[in-house]
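Let us work through a complete example step by step.
Step 1: write down the sequence.
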Amino acid sequence: MSIKYSAEEIATRIKAVDPTFRFPTKEQIPIIQSELAPSVVIAGAGSGKTETMSQRVLFLVANSLIKPDQLLGLTFTRKSAGELSKRIKYRLRQLKSAKLLPENLDESELTVSTYHSYAGKVLADHAIRIGLDADSDPIGEAAAWQIAFEEVSRFAGNDLPINGSPKSVVAEVMDLSTALAENDRTAAEIIEYTHKLLNHISNFSDRQTIPVLEFKEELNQRLAILPIVAAFDERRREHGLLTFNDHMSIAARLVKESKDKHNDDIGVIERSKYKVVLLDEYQDTSFNQIKFLSNLFGNNHPVTAVGDPNQAIYGWRSASSETLDTFAQSFNSKATRYTLLTTWRNDKSILDLANVMIDSISTQENVEKLSARSNAQIGEVGCGIYETQAQEANAIAEYFSKYWFDKNRQASPVNEKTTFAVLVRNRSQIDQIQSALLDLGIPTDIPGVGGLIHTPEISDIVALLRSLTMPDSGTALMRLLTGPHIALGAKDLMALGAFTKSFAKSNEYSRGKQLKQALEENIEVIETADEFASGSIIESLEQLLTLTPSEFSNYHSTPKFSSEGLERLRRFSLSLRSLRRSLTGSITEAINEAEQFLSLDSEVLVRDGWQNGRRNLDRFLDEAARFEKNGGTLISFLQWLKVAEEAEGGLKPAEVDVRSDAVQILTIHAAKGAEWDFVAIPGLADRNFPSIGKKSDNWISNAGSIPVTLRGDFEQLPAINFEKISDNKNLKKALEGFDDQWKARKLTEERRLAYVAITRAKQGLLCTTSHFRSGNKPVDPSQLFEIFATATKDIEGASIISETDVPVGINPLKENPRTASWPSPNHNVESLRKVAELTNQSSIMKIEEQLSTTNNDEQKSILFDMQAIINEIKGKEKYLKVVLPTRLSVSTLLYLAKEPQELALRIRRPMPNHIDKYARRGTEFHLWLENHFNHPSLISMDELFNQSLQAVDLQSDAPLEKLQSSWLASGWAAKTPADIEFGFETMIDGILIRGRIDAVYKLENDKYEVVDWKTGKVKSGDDLETAAIQLAMYRLAYSKLKSVPIENISAAFHYVADNQTVRPADIMNQEQLKALISKVPIEI
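Step 2: predict the structure and record it as tokens.
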């Protein structure tokens, strides 16, 4: 290899154009100047591997050993690929400035991408030979889950011997499909292996113990699920709905076939393009990725594998810590080994703790440790045990607050402010930590879907949507009942519970059981969520609306409802009914409906300000839109969110952008590759961290995993030789031995995860746990906490900051639940109120006078700014034009005719409606009428839409009993309507008008009459003329949708209390309705 410039010479030339450039160290120089040959670089956390790799490329390009387009760099995330590509291109431009490269050299042709993207590109180039269309983008995990859910639902009626809920079966289908793709296996191979194994162990004649029976049960569960997996995979292949794992698996198979049958033609092409290959985070590569890359670039092609075996945390996807050790064997190459062990990230105390973890991970005596940079500070490490999780969360918030509110930090530019993160092993602790931080006025950010669900506003939306669509979501409903929207007190909650039990006991054949029977017996049922809004508490809310006072008294238990509590529950139930009917559109529309119903848009703006207030809401809408793009439904989206919420490491982690304007709370898996100045690691309790997991990926106890002997990395894993086992006694012993070995591997992986968490911190690290977690009894600190706490004795800058004794008794939060006033004080709201009060008390300021009396430059600047703003406002148009939305209700049309200016103002700045008791009485009458007609949807959405605007007209509403008796005495009671609560959507002049007609009656000679029930006073004159627009719209819509000539349709208001039917003359026709709508834009 001919060398013109050494690494030091190149660094000297770059230093001349960039004084901040750091010279390579004695560790880095041998790597930078290494031969064009295979090599392995063991790079510890924060050891500058990105800079080392970029300087390696500079060396090769400056010495004309390669051109920029002859480099292939691969890593796992788009973010990492972007950072590496950006760094290399920047350094190459510096080489140009240093006159070491010609100006015309094009560094933009550099190829740095993710492993999956590169596999997809190779597949797209050569897929034609296997008859595969690989041009479409891979689908994400949400879309794949959705297809799996549909396949599980389709198979559900096939009498397969499957145990578990649909959600757990979907998870097993997804896991098995991924495992097959990762290990290049087929469902048929697993089925064949399982049948053979079952036949073998079924011949054992001695007594079967529980471990043996459970093992057989998992084998049979796997056999039952595999046909679903096969159908799931086949459906995706047929429709081109391939995942990233599919692309990698097919690409690996394609390259292997090329090597075996086509003279390695694909490998020849790729090796001629890329003279040097850099493989980043190599410890995370799976069996298929290694197979794909080794068949392309094996046999001593210049491949550099860079990684850290101590950061191998993805064992569940067949990524092993041993991959770096077996690189030479996998690539059939002789590889030179290098190390990068000087960390440029961590202060000394943090680094010392990381080295303690390396000792606990390694089985070697003289394991290589990390060393500190020459200018490293001492830093700090704190360990604390607290009594409860709440106290633990408060301690983290207080620790961060010292540095967050530091005056020097506050004065620093955004890009120089210190950064903060809480790295959790279990997402269940996010809520309390976030609340503790917010209580101190520290903003938070929770990256990723799973974290997003834990934010208060998104939790409320999800709870509302689950209450509307999932009849058994009582827990979700309780969040709403006890939250600020309903604010139901403890006494009324107890009353609701007592009423629920009493009603269920007296009505054993509830709607919920009707629904269950209908589903089991395939009975055709009315497709409305109202009809079967079951699930105990949700069903109880329905009954609070429909039961008469005398019926209700039969179920009145102790304690009794307060009048206010009962009123809130009935009002809320009515709102749920109206919302449920509006959930006919897209997922994003449903979320918007829920957001408006809960007034979250205003709440988050007050809480977090206009810049950040809607951040979580908008991110959630983006996630919903992506899910919806693949044909997802609201129900499947909510179920997917449940999976995302519960997954701790199984979902693809979000790519994290480190921020200085919020404390970021995320899982340790998601934090890999990022760094913060201050980090907290909470929840270091037994069974929590190290985590035992909700379900192990051990194949003998998890039907979602494939047998170890069929995995590509089987040589690195424990295994059972079933051929040498001849009875159940030895089978039990072998199963238990394998389980112990698997747990030991998992414990080591948890320790590597702890190492990852520790090495994210630059200056300060806080490690905590609490005696009481979520249960009644105290929980011991975990092995990890004990390792950390013991190490603090020998680490400078480390200390135990809190050590409470194990308390006697049960969890104090269970024995003495935390109490607080509601609503809780909001610092932003209080500040706004003070500003508003000062504004109201202030007198009108004459800016010219103030300017002449002050010599303060700052005051003058503010006054000039105020004058500029006033002049700008004066210079604006006198009128603001407001355009109607593209979707309107019929009530809005009435409003447009009567109060166009007021309507324009409400469109410009929407405000929540106030619904008074008179408006509610009208809807109560409709509910009663619904039961009379035995129809589930007879509530006028138009009345609900604008009840506050009709309040004046409804002041004379008669009591409900009078309305009922008056209607029964009318001529309408004896007639049978042709249509009831007829919902419609129709276009007029490009505007979609939607509404519901109370009733339609068929008259003689194929004529019809639309009727609207009114519970207020009889209208006449201009009021009647305006109200008649409603009938005109109903008449036109019915004509269009039923293809009935409009002249054959009459229209009437029936004023129930007065038993008077009014048929207005001269009802608007279609052209007149168009003219009404054309009154826009409206000026205000």
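Step 3: interpret the result. The CA atoms of residues 405 and 442 lie 9 Å apart.
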